[in-house]
Design brief:
Layout lengths: L3 H24 L2 H8 L3 H7 L3 H22 L7 H16 L2 H13 L5 H8 L1 H17 L8 H14 L2 H5 L8 H19 L8
Length: 205
């Protein structure tokens, strides 16, 4: 059961999400967000110390459910290629979502003159890389992949999943890629990854 404080926090995040989408980070104000929530700015700041902190929390609330589903696909008991392809398709779909792309553009734009980039990275990409690295390390220990630096392997995996659609979605060339296109991109990325990290002598089909 949610506490009153948790419910209030979620109400703030929902209102902030709409304000940030409508106005962008720079033009959004804590005053407008507090007005939509129906409280004072002091109450808002009691939950979030800064607009940057609130913005990062909004992004991660949006991605939390998908993030949990994403990591759940890294199943050591499943066929490695199948698990990685399912993970890859879910990952590409998440990072290609129009709302997340709009938020990401704001993060990039603000990163040169605020802490928002560091905050976003620490609570998002860095955590993802840690989990993927741990999974790959376990796969290496089980002989499913060749021995290598699992942190670099995780970077290579994520980079390959970004390769086909990241720029196109980020720069507005592609919106809402089709499910079939996402699955095909994931399959190609995972094929390349497995060819690079397969145990010597393994036949990749």
């Amino acid at each position: 059961m949610r506490t009153k404080s948790e419910s209030r926090r979620n109400t703030i995040l929902d209102a902030a999400f709409q304000v940030f989408l409508e106005n962008g980070f720079s033009a959004a104000s804590m005053s407008e967000i507090s007005a939509r929530v129906g409280g004072s700015k002091a109450t808002l700041y009691s939950y979030f110390a800064s607009k940057e902190e609130l913005f990062v929390a909004v992004i991660h609330q949006f991605a939390d459910d998908q993030f949990a589903e994403l990591l759940g696909m890294l199943d050591l008991q499943a066929d490695l290629a199948v698990a990685l392809e399912e993970f890859g398709a879910c990952f590409i779909k998440l990072v290609s979502h129009p709302d997340l792309i709009r938020m990401y553009r704001n993060v990039v734009g603000e990163s040169s003159h605020s802490e928002i980039g560091r905050m976003f990275y620490a609570r998002g990409p860095q955590e993802l890389h840690k989990e993927v690295s741990l999974f790959l390390q376990q796969c290496m220990a089980q002989g499913k992949l060749r021995q290598a630096d699992s942190h670099i392997a995780a970077q290579h995996l994520v980079g390959l999943l970004y390769a086909e659609m990241r720029d196109a979605t980020l720069f507005g060339i592609l919106e809402n890629p089709a499910e079939t296109a996402i699955q095909a991109a994931s399959q190609r990325a995972i094929e390349v990854f497995l060819r690079g990290y397969a145990v010597p002598g393994t036949v990749i089909t």
